[in-house]
Amino acid sequence: MSLIMEVNFDKSILTQPTRNIHEIEIPREGNSKKLQFYECKAAPNVPCYKIVYTSDGISFGETVMSQLVSDYQLKLDKDFKNFTSVKEMEAWMFSHQNETMFGLAFIPNSILDTVDTLSYTLYYNRSREELHFPLLSLQNIIDNNIIYLRMKELNRTQDLMDSRYSVQVDYKSFPQPLTTKDGQTLVFKISGPTFFSISAMFILIVSLNNLVVEKEFRLRFSMIMMGMKESAYFLSWLITFLVISLVFALVNVLGGMIFQMSIFLNANFVVLFLLFFSFSFSLICLSFFLSTFIKESRNALILGFTVLAISFILNLTVSNGGIVYLLYSDKISPFFYIIFSFYPPFNFAKVFIDIASKTLPEYDSALRRFVSGPGYSFTDFFVGKNSYDYVPASWIGVGLLFLDGLFFLILYWYCDNVISDGNGIRKSPIFFLYPSYWGIQCFRSKEHKAPSDDNITFSKFETDDVKVEFKRARDWSQPAIVRIISLRKTFSGFFSRIAHKILPQKYADKFSEKKALKELNLVVRDNECVSLLGHNGAGKSTTMNILTGLFEQSHGEAYVSDLDVKTSISAVRKQLGICPQHDILWDDLTAEEHLELFGDLKGIPRKECKEQVKSLLDSVELSKVGHHLTKTYSGGMKRRLSICIACIGNPKLILLDEPTTGLDPYSRKKAWNLIHNMKKGRAMILTTHAMDEADYLSDRIAIMANGELKCIGTSLSIKSQYGSGYNLMVVANSGHEDSILTLIQHKVKDLKVVSENAGNFIFNIPKHQVSELSDLISEMEKQSSRIDGIIKDWGISQTTLEEVYLKVTQKSEFSFSKNKT
Ligand SMILES: Nc1ncnc2c1ncn2[C@@H]1O[C@H](COP(=O)(O)OP(=O)(O)OP(=O)(O)O)[C@@H](O)[C@H]1O
Ligand SMILES: [Mg+2]
Hints:
Keywords: ATP-binding, Membrane, Nucleotide-binding, Transmembrane, Transmembrane helix, Transport
GO molecular function: ABC-type transporter activity; ATP binding; ATP hydrolysis activity; lipid transporter activity
GO cellular component, one term: membrane
Membrane topology: Multi-pass membrane protein
Subcellular location: Membrane
Helix content: 40-55%
Radius of gyration: 47 Å
Structural class: alpha/beta
Number of strands: 23
Strand order of the largest sheet: 15-16-17-12-18-19
Shape: elongated
Strand content: 15-25%
Number of helices: 28
Largest sheet: 6 strands, mixed
Bound molecules: adenosine-5'-triphosphate, magnesium ion
């Protein structure tokens, strides 16, 4: 007689539930009872139970177990252990690993069962394969007992086939703690994308900070001013960051392998590398784009960490395994998927989860343990994820990361040109439509038209020299290296710009504006050095900054070698050498490296460059420390290096903004010599507050006040024009002070006593009385040569430049305050 029994394995052992059908012999009375139960083997000194069991209150289960115990003469607490519930039994098995061979638990029936089912679970030790076959024998014994006892119960009167009884068997491995790999699986699945994308975010912060620091300290602009192409600057950083990305990708993948992470061990190396590299590439491009909005490195860090924090939150929600795939399903609008495609961590998370789902150990609920994934091959990269048809293949995710990068680079290119940040001329929002941007030169009229308000401004000038300069600036027949025509510069804030666009003039004017340059006309010729003098805020640096393209003029024109700085700034910069008012140096480069860098930017051959570096450093006494980092330099040494930088590469125009500020007298003399020697064959504009410097170095001196040119000419001419004549110094022999006053006042009528101190007199002889000087001088000589003469010593000097300066600027200050009131 045979009985068909259904044995249910756990439904999730495979995707389809499996049913095994066993044919079992019904035992006959007394048959196989004397068989030996399995020999108990455990570790030495560890108790070994043949079987642990619980009937969990099921009386028939208790009967079956009693039959087993009596058949095989099993002894309680020696051969077997009894528990009151499954929970209690599993807890014991968990805490007593390898102390039993089998476990048996009878499970209460489901109340929905229509037949009287006896369910039991057999527990086995998955690490002891030699016991797997005996497990089936044990099942056979138990099943035989069940059938025997049921038949006994039915008194063999009814065919079991027609009865309402059935038996259900489950298998379970002994409970055990999660292994490190299982824990890894959970960690990777839940937070892997977040963890790895957050670590990559630091690349974004570092690159953003680097870009903004160079902008903040005008290092970028300094190189651009010295002739470096924007594209070269951009490429140099891009290549640097790409190398960092390469290293980052390699360290990530190799690190994962070294630390035995399944995802890195079971996936294709090239795919992993591509994923990490493309991700860091997209983040770097994002940092380029973000850098266009920030001026200060402090803000760059704030922005970088804000992006990191937002990414962290978004990653935890969106980039989480299930949600990433959900976004692709047709239940969710494609809008979200498209939007998130522009968010690199999302694309990264998608591919990461693709790889993780094939490489990480999966929990097999049939086996009740984690089994290693099938692995992620290079072909899987091009195939969609099998279980979700709507999820695109991984290569699309990586492709999107590269596309994101390109998209951010295009935005960077646009914003960098349109947003000036005070670091260069801002271009029109449609700059890319102009052929000149792409280097295509269209036909342009050579005729230079004078600004329309020329007549008004001309009549406004008070002095002839300024009027002459006005005309000279417009005389294109006279060659000039620098030609500045009616230059104006107004610094207006954001609100002021808006106000001028939307409000009537009289209201808009209420929003503060700073007129740094009001009407400047200036010409500098070849072999000429013009000094710009003026009070703080007179507009000297602004003039220079417009010539270098740092600021864009609000009105008027500026030309260098007949090239308009507004439209041909790149060509202009090739001819410039600049020493800015504030040193722009890299702390971690030496003086020699600085000069070689700028020499290279100017395109001078290496050999010649080395010679120039040596002679320039010699000329300012820096050759001994030329190989030291500039962060170790004093302020004066940095200044001298800045002067050398301006002079390297034979520029056509050298702009020196207060070059000798902070230099000791010896270094200053050296710097003067260098500047003096450099004058030959080029034009130079120098700003200074030291009158002796202007006197010594310049061919012409221009004094500015409140953004306007107040006087211009050679040192002699402005002294004679604006000076107050001559100063006569007389030292009287004691007791003859009054006689001296009488004598001199007799000779020169309009004489002024400037100072009188213990017999030392300073008189001012006005210009119209200069004719009287010869008479006076011969009288002085006579008096001083006589032993009993009234004069001990005397001297005469022309008005100093300082006096002229004070006179001119005081006058303009007066008119300025008068205008204001
Ligand atoms: N970026 C700017 N934004 C707003 N105002 C500015 C800016 N740069 C300069 N100014 C203003 O323009 C005016 C002229 O400044 P500039 O630097 O040209 O003076 P300067 O003659 O070089 O003075 P100093 O001798 O102190 O160097 C000043 O009032 C200054 O405040
Ligand atoms: Mg200045």
